[in-house]
């Protein structure tokens, strides 16, 4: 008999499970608190349950756990990459990014965990290492949640923020992603508030509109990188299905529905999307509706042996990055510059998982 994995279930689902095995409904809420707030990995950890109940649960249920098989810590900024092995042998990553700002005790004010939603990715963005893996499957709600839970056990400080910006496209795993958000943000889980959760998408318009209709309280980030349709279609083939006019219209609807400013992620590529014309387009967009731009340094993906336009991508030199940002700020654009976190480790999205996959193919 296949056992029911309780990790990844909501309070109503846990209540239904306990009723189905002849137990009181309130056991579901107790289990929820112990699974997420106390991060129990076994029924023996749940001391509020009697020994007979724990034994009964062990016969029909389990508390799943994904395994951390590798961990790399940057000597530069303490960015930490975690590699997880899933039950089917696939691998995904999460990256812990501490903020540069510090509190009175010199601890990072924010600890942001970037988590994955798919094994691989189907979107083939030309600047992303994960694209070379292709998509294998969606992660379950449990697998999304447990990245956070297992990392939290490994680090001394509380994780404060979550970004769905790891391997995969969150909007193509919408149900499991949003279910995980509901568990993360539930007051009984004591994990992360909705206002500290960001979902990043390459531009899946249907998902953005659904978020707007459902009035989701999480933040939205768009992997944009250019406001030129022709170039964006080369860099991000999803733009052929959801061109910029359609995408920006959906983002505007999200803003009006949520009253939350979306963030546009913008990787600067040398002499490709860092010109005066590009700056003018961004300034014009920022006047259309309130938004923020996150300027991101490019992590080269030479290890994937890129071809075509991917092989031509080069980071914009720092001096011109500063000039570009100055031009945007002079145009009243809210701009943040993301530091090149973890540049001395395999910190680019998908980099460690891709290397692991190649090693296993060679051994096989």
Indicate the topology:
Layout (H helix, E strand, L loop, with lengths): L3 E2 L5 H10 L6 H11 L13 H10 E2 L4 E7 L6 E6 L5 E8 L12 E4 L3 E2 L17 E2 L2 H14 L6 E4 L9 H12 L11 E5 L3 H9 L5 E5 L5 H7 L8 H15 L4 E5 L8 H13 L3 E5 L21 H13 L3 E4 L13 H13 L1
Parallel strand pairs: 1-2, 6-9, 9-10, 10-11, 11-12, 12-13, 13-14
Antiparallel strand pairs: 3-4, 4-5, 5-6, 7-8
Helix pairs in contact: 1-2, 4-5, 6-8
Structural write-up:
- By secondary structure, the chain is α/β, with parallel strands linked by helices.
- The chain folds into three domains: 4-62, DNA polymerase, domain 1 (Orthogonal Bundle); 65-201, TIM Barrel (Alpha-Beta Barrel), CATH 3.20.20.70; 206-338, TIM Barrel (Alpha-Beta Barrel), CATH 3.20.20.70.
- 35% of the residues lie in helices and 17% in strands.
- It is built from eleven helices and 14 strands.
- It has helices spanning 11-20, 27-37, 51-60, 141-154, 174-185, 205-213, 229-235, 244-258, 276-288, 318-330, 351-363, and strands spanning 4-5, 61-62, 67-73, 80-85, 91-98, 111-114, 118-119, 137-138, 161-164, 197-201, 219-223, 263-267, 292-296, 334-337.
- The chain has a ten-stranded mixed beta sheet, with helices on both faces.
- α1 crosses α2 (27-37), α4 packs across α5 (174-185) and α6 packs parallel to α8 (244-258).
- The longest helix is centred in the C-terminal third of the chain and has 15 residues, at 244-258.
- The protein is elongated.
- The model is unreliable at 360-364 (pLDDT under 50).
């Amino acid at each position: 008999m296949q056992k029911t994995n309780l990790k990844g279930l909501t309070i109503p689902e846990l209540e239904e499970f306990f009723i189905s095995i002849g137990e009181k409904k309130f056991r579901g809420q107790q289990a929820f608190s112990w699974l997420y707030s106390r991060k129990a990995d076994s029924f023996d950890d749940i001391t509020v349950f009697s020994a007979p109940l724990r034994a009964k649960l062990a016969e029909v249920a389990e508390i799943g756990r994904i395994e951390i098989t590798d961990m790399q810590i940057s000597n530069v900024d303490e960015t930490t990459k975690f590699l997880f092995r899933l039950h089917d042998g696939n691998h995904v990553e999460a990256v812990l990014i501490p903020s540069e700002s510090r509190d009175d005790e010199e601890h990072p004010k924010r600890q942001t965990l970037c988590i994955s939603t798919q094994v691989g990715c189907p979107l083939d963005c030309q600047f992303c290492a994960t694209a070379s893996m292709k998509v294998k499957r969606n992660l379950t709600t449990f697998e999304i949640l447990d990245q956070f839970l297992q990392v939290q056990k490994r680090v001394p400080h509380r994780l404060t923020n979550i970004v769905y910006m790891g391997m995969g496209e969150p909007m193509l795993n919408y149900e499991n992603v949003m279910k995980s958000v509901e568990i993360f943000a539930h007051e009984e889980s004591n994990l992360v508030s909705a206002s500290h959760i960001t979902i990043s998408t390459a531009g899946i318009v249907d998902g953005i509109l659904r978020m707007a209709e459902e009035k989701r309280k999480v933040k939205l980030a768009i992997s944009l990188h250019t406001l030129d349709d022709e170039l964006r279609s080369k860099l991000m083939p999803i733009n052929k299905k959801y061109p910029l006019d359609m995408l920006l219209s959906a983002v505007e609807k999200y803003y009006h529905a949520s009253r939350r400013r979306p963030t546009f992620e913008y990787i600067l590529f040398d002499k490709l999307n860092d010109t005066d014309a590009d700056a003018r387009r961004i300034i014009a967009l920022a006047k259309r509706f309130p938004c923020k731009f996150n300027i991101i340094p490019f992590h080269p993906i030479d290890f994937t042996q890129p071809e075509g336009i991917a092989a031509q991508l080069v980071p914009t030199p720092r001096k011109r990055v500063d000039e570009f940002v100055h031009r945007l700020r002079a145009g009243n654009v809210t701009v943040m510059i993301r530091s090149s976190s973890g540049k001395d480790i395999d910190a680019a999205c998908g980099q460690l998982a891709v290397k692991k996959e190649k090693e296993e193919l060679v051994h096989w």
